[in-house]
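Duplicate of earlier report; DnaD domain-containing protein input re-posted below.
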Amino acid sequence: MKPSARHTTYGDFLSTPFVSVPYDLLSSYANLGIHAHEMVMLLQILANGQVHGTTELSAQEVGDLCGMSSKEVLFAVERLVHEGLLGIGERWDDSGAHVTYFDLQPLWERLRGKPTPQEQSKTWRTEPFTMFEEEFGRPLSALECEQLRTWLSQDGYGCPEWMVVEALREAVLANKYSFKYIDRVLFDWQRNQVRSRQDLEQYRQQYRDRIRDTQPKKRNETQSATHQNKRSTERKPQEKATASRDERYANFYQLFPEN
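Output:
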């Protein structure tokens, strides 16, 4: 059978990779609150995952594919993540390097009608790397990412994620935005055999009890020191006057001693 002229003309084009896009996404993206330029960006992420097998794209790479600036891409990503339409995943590659990738799972969940944007946003924000960057208000450095991996690895403290997150909260409440401070907190918990959430709550309660027990003692010591200082202050003018009297009128008092 002779192929049609149409098939022959576009044969080279039809042999290039194709991308599968759910029709539900194309027909309802506007109802989901996705803007046209954001849709193009999501399609490029989807295409890169299907054709190249990865969604590890930088803002510059996405911008080049979509005709957008890196700043525009970052604004769009931030909005989509906030609305629960896109996620940022974290993983370690074969060389042990920390890499981030775009996660389209929140988008597919929204297309299925669940979960709500707030619930989805809350889910991905529990990831330790993301939470640290949110609380510190900046991206983590390579050394900080390595430190975080050390806390979570069996070669380091081997802490579960919830414990690292709790240590971060301790630092935030103490206004200590320092990896060194968090490391001391984790070390102290390890030293005191904190292994579970119940252990941590008991440790915190014991700490509060110790603080409460020491407060009356400190208060009594403070009151005693204040009283002692007051007595010393009261004696000083008299002693000063006596010393001054003895120095200036020594001969006089020798002639006329006090009774």
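DSSP finds 14 helices and two strands in the chain.

Merging into the original ticket.
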